[in-house]
Specification:
The structure holds 2 protein chains of 2 kinds. Chain A is of the alpha+beta class. Chain A has helices at residues 17-27, 61-65, 91-95, and strands at 2-5, 29-30, 38-41, 49-52, 71-73, 79-81, 102-103, 110-111, 129-132. Classes of the chains: A alpha+beta, B alpha+beta.
Chain lengths: 141, 602
């Protein structure tokens, strides 16, 4: 299975089209936060942008941390999320080493990339890839 | 005022409200804020219309621009964030430059940040007791004491303001002013997210008068979207149009600076205070030259995949043993005209050096460049001496101009104080009005001819973007003033339509009236789609009425003699035609303003 890679973030222009696409297409929302890929600037616009997005760990620390198995391991990396069993405890978010799980302050639910790749078609500079999961795959985000 | 003043607003975050706008009214004097419902979206539409409606309610028509109760109004539109390039914000305020109701537009992240914070508009009135920073989010409002930032330049101020709410980095917008705004320079700008600006007509001085050094808007809320597939499909169609068709190529390739070379060939670039319209040395400051030598990268306003913001890298050796410093400075056609051709600076690095200094001071670069161009010619003619200018000004001398920019921002002496009120004020005081390149405000980078000169001089924002007079000069054949005026009035209406949404004007070829109506309908605003044409005309009229009510009198404006002396590709200026366009345009505008009186709410 393929996973999303923010492989060329040095090309990012900060248009947020990927974030907005995920929010629009997966969460029926207009948001910078309620999205599986969140774009950040570190120290102002002059230093460029970085993507907060699931790296597709296997095993995933967020899965291990989830007390209700709402998060389960996705084959090839990343997680599957079953909202019906989520108790909104936020353990997944705390366990993620790269802050890729956002706890939605309005719904209380975790929001994380599911590696569907729909955001990639909205990136005007091909910063994002869908690539086969492979250990050691370099990611320079 | 020293501590956070926070409270929950209990505002429902929901899809666009068709019944009323949600507006946050901040009173800096009292340190309190009130969220209110305001106006009718089907009548005011948003953006330009909302700002005008709010100024009609909160503005003081007869009081000066620095009156404590004058509002500073930031307004977004019904499509902000919902479609690509719906990324701009309209600032409505009383201009310290001319005392009249004015608009200025900026992009950056501000539009989406306001959308996510849950407000269609911010109205800021009153005066803070100490230099302050206003911080607004979806569930928070704070007025922070930042007296320690007073006097700092725009770039240093930005670095300090980023320390506030650092967890929101990338999901917020940071506005600030520099020394020019603090000191009341009539063309002080408001910097938005480092590379964008509310540049023209002195919004920065209004912030300064309110002791408001900065504004941070946190985009920390989320809104539901329509579930229908039609909306998502339409979004995709528009997205593909702006990214895959030639419609927007110009903006993300060389950028607006692409214009410099062909305009120079046309003899339509203002050089050295408009003493010429063509120069063989243009190659030092063309879009191609910047791209080859200095372009570092491009960046975008939030919600715009085009990415037209061209950022140049200025690398400077500051000491022996290869000690270098670097700066990142954004550039466009207008700034390169103002700090380049107008000042006779023909090397790209020199232009960026001056632009960076203007940015630091918080000056509108177009106004600052034109003001210094006038000062240079006045110096050369002996109308002013270095007793006034403090440095011997000379076309092309970057280092001297760099010093002069600092004097202009800091209002160092009487001369720079007066020049900071506008070029024509200085020319009236010292002499040299004939060669002051002022058309209502300092000119833009187009010496295209009669229709542009008349339309900026008497236009609503005194901007080339009001009505595209420069385009008419280049495309139209013949010199019939009634045709020109009909073009200007209708072009203004279609642009008002866009600035109500609030779209970037670069997307005007994508967002036709029909497309805008489709977009509005797709997000559940069919009432606005139906009223779009009639309401945009009403808004056009409202804005003109406000301008008249706040003191606009076309008799106060004249087109300086320098513009009559211009030679373009079409030959000399036809003064009879220019005067005829000016008179008929004024008549058409007066008629519009009278129609505006019938509009409810004014």
């Amino acid at each position: 299975m393929k996973i999303l890679r923010a492989a060329r973030m040095e090309r990012c222009i900060g248009c947020y089209s990927c974030s907005l696409a995920c929010a629009r297409l997966l969460h029926q929302s207009l948001s910078w936060h309620r999205t599986g890929i969140r774009i950040r600037s570190a120290g102002g616009l002059s230093t460029g942008f970085e993507a907060q997005v699931c790296l597709g760990c296997d095993p995933a620390p967020c899965v291990e941390a989830c007390p209700t198995d709402a998060f389960s391991q996705r084959k090839g990396g990343g997680v599957r999320v079953k909202r019906s069993t989520c108790i909104r405890c936020g353990e997944c978010s705390r366990a993620c080493p790269v802050d890729a799980v956002y706890m939605d302050s309005e719904t209380g639910l975790p929001v994380v990339c599911i590696h569907c790749g729909r955001c990639t078609t909205f990136c005007p500079h091909e910063c994002l890839d869908m690539s086969e999961s492979a250990a050691g795959d370099e990611d320079d985000q | 005022m020293n501590a956070w003043t926070c409270r929950n607003l209990r505002l429902e975050t929901k899809m666009i409200n068709e019944e009323a706008f949600r507006v946050l009214v901040v009173d800096l004097t009292e340190g309190k804020s009130e969220p209110v419902l305001f106006g009718s979206p089907s009548e005011l539409l948003g953006g330009s219309g909302l700002a005008a409606g709010l100024f009609a309610s909160y503005g003081l028509m007869d009081a000066s621009a620095d009156h404590p109760d004058q509002p500073l109004i930031f307004a977004i539109g019904p499509l902000t964030g919902y479609f690509p390039l719906m990324s701009k914000v309209v600032l409505g305020f009383k201009s310290p430059y001319n005392g009249q109701y004015a608009e200025s537009h900026a992009g950056g992240r501000l539009g989406l940040a306001m959308r996510f914070a849950g407000y269609d508009a911010l109205v800021i009135k009153g005066v803070a007791s100490t230099p302050s920073c206003l911080i607004v989010g979806s569930r928070s409002i704070g007025i922070r004491d930042v007296h320690y930032l007073w006097g700092l330049d725009v770039l240093a101020t930005g670095k300090h303001l980023r320390r506030f709410s650092g967890k929101d980095s990338g999901h917020r917008s940071i506005l600030r002013i520099g020394p020019a705004g603090e000191r009341g320079v009539a063309f002080a700008s408001i910097n938005v997210d480092t590379y964008r600006h509310f540049g023209r007509l002195g919004g920065g001085a209004v912030m300064g008068a309110k002791r408001l050094k900065g504004i941070i808007v946190l985009g920390d809320g989320s809104l539901p979207l329509p579930g229908e597939k039609a909306y998502r499909d339409l979004f995709k169609t528009v997205y593909q149009e702006v990214t895959q068709t030639p419609a927007m190529k110009k903006y993300h390739d060389l950028g607006t600076l692409e214009n410099m070379l062909p305009l120079n060939e046309l003899h339509a670039v203002p050089w050295r205070n408009l003493q010429a319209t063509h120069d063989e040395n243009v190659h030092g400051i063309t879009g191609q030259r910047f791209a080859e030598e200095l372009l570092l990268r491009k960046t975008a306003c939030s919600g715009c995949p085009v990415g037209c913001i061209h950022v140049g890298l200025l690398r400077e050796k500051f000491a022996e043993q290869n000690e270098f410093q670097y700066r990142q400075v954004s550039y466009d056609h207008e700034p390169v005209f103002a700090a380049g051709s107008m000042l006779g600076v023909t090397n790209a690095g020199g232009v960026l050096t001056l632009l960076e200094e203007m940015e630091r001071q918080g000056l509108d670069v177009m106004s600052a460049g034109v003001a210094l161009a006038w000062a240079t010619e006045a110096f050369e003619r002996g109308i002013v001496t270095d007793k006034e200018t403090l440095v011997p000004l000379s076309f092309g001398d970057v280092e001297k101009y760099r010093e002069a920019v600092r004097h202009l921002g800091m209002r160092t002496n009487d001369f720079y104080h007066v020049l900071g009120q506008g070029t024509l004020v200085a020319a009236t005081h010292y002499g040299g009005s004939d060669f002051a390149c002022v058309l209502g405000q300092e000119m833009a980078g187009y010496a295209t001819g009669e229709v542009y000169f008349a339309s900026q001089a008497y236009g609503f924002r005194h901007s080339h973007l009001d009505n595209a007079g420069y385009s008419y000069d280049q495309k139209a054949e013949g010199k019939k003033s009634e045709d020109a005026v009909a073009f200007l009035i209708e072009e203004e209406r279609t642009r008002v339509q866009l600035t109500c949404m609030v779209s970037c004007l670069f997307a005007r070829s994508v967002y036709s009236q029909e497309r805008l109506q489709e977009c509005l309908t797709s997000v559940g605003l069919s009432h606005l789609a139906e009223s779009l044409v009639a309401s945009s005309r009403d808004v056009q009229a409202k804005r003109w009425q406000l301008k008249y009510l706040t003191g606009y009198n076309p008799k106060d404006i004249s087109i300086p003699k320098r513009f009559e002396e211009v030679t373009t590709w079409k030959g000399g200026i036809n003064k009879v035609f220019m005067d005829s366009v000016a008179v008929e345009y004024q008549n058409a505008v007066r008629k519009l303003a009278n129609e505006g009186q019938k509009v409810q709410g004014l």
